[in-house]
Specification:
Number of strands: 12
Oligomer: single chain
Shape: flat
Helix content: 40-55%
CATH topology of the largest domain: Rossmann fold
Distance between the termini: 66 Å
Strand order of the largest sheet: 9-10-11-8-12
Length: 524
Amino acid sequence: MTDPDRQIWDGMLAHLRAHHATICRQWFEELEPLGIAAGTLQLRTHSPLHRDYLRRICADQFNDAAQTVSGRLLSVRFLGPDDEVLQPTPSKKPDGPRASAPSGPVQLPIDPRRDGVRPASPAGAPAQPPTSLDRPHTNGTHVPAEASPEPPEVHVRPVVANGAAVPSKPAGSTPTPYESLVVNPDYDFANFVVGPGNQLAHAAAQAVAANPGRAYNPFFVHGGVGLGKTHLLQAVCLKIVEANPRTRLYYTSCEGFSSQFFDSVQSGEMGEFRHRFRDVDVLVIDDIHFLTKLDRSQEEFFHTFNALFQAQKQIILSSDAPPEEIPLLQERLVSRFLWGLVAKVEKPDYETRIQILKTKARLRGLMLPDDAAGFIAQRLDSNIRELEGAIVKLQIQSVVEKRPMDLALARAALGEEPQPAVGEPTIQSIIDAVTEFYTIRLADLQSKHRQRSIALPRQVCMYLARRCTRHSLEEIGGFFGGRDHTTVMHAIRTVEIKREKESDFELVVRSLEEKVRAGRGPAM
């Protein structure tokens, strides 16, 4: 590409970081600018799923950046690895003989809301063939995708990697937009933090992705809201499509299944509906527990399940509860959900939460210090979505206030620690008191250093945390550099023995405990 085009792309990246920071990802740097043609800046992605994600989620922000930086009415076109590139200039000679580019819809930017699906034609206008099914031949004619020497953009009809293609309708009728769930490229196995609460589910998901239809079928993962079930489902989708881009994979929600079923019943198109859900290699449905009370949807899903299972096609389901605890779910469905592997995802422990925070920050190109991660992990322990929300808040506040990502910013972003009940201080208040008394830093307490000047204050912190808070031994140890519960137990015994033998030390510990329980400053 030319130098001016390169300058526009570099300026776009800077604009996105400054004005649309929340969508920015590290892999944006890997996008390949191919130059400007027909009023569009073409960007090459390294997988169809990255392309689809950008089209569906980031198109408006990229167009805003392109127009702001260039000062022109410029749009952005995202291309997959095998998508055709528009020629940047009419005068540039191609490498070999080539027919002139058709002047029809092929040269227009693809609708970012759909992957390979052309928008509905206006009433009375002739229907255009879907671009994902037909490809322009070198002589200007069209051939079906199945006969083309190149594969379709993702894979063959009727399914794309992250949802179903819109079925064709008779001329003059209104098409039904069967929106699919977006597969987020961030949700791969490399970015999934494994901890004690999700080890089984993670291992099973990897096995399913490596051998779909044969490892565990069905694969049923359940757990509370925001604990990583969707991440696992999308990681399986990404891995399967990466290994075989022509896999017919359909990923939707239970609500999507039910609404499409009722639409098809009303329009008399059950044949199309069954083709969409049963002629696939992998069916992934999120939040299957919403089938409850929907008797007709349960009946249809029962037959869909049987058809896929008998054909050895992979079925992947997620739910807030295990199959036997989903209310009003037909017994025959419960039985079938238990045929494969049922894996539970539990709340992440303290150490896992710290790693999740650092991973979420890294994906956004941010560096989160250990003390800031520890503070956030202590404050937020409900689910992963809260942790990601905290990273977004820190990122926005850092950009707006032009402050570094550190502990002070984390405290400002999340607000001060809520006032605890009398006699129940927080670990952070204990650390503040001990570090000020002993004149050391939090980083020293969390380090691996064992010299007495650091080890003793660390043991005092662990002792007071166990004595004054409701945190488990494991959580306390995780806060202080990922130490296990036996280390915390040893620290508690050491402090107790030292208190009995040394009166001066006894006075120090008692004073520190009184201060933190009363919510006052550190002992002097």
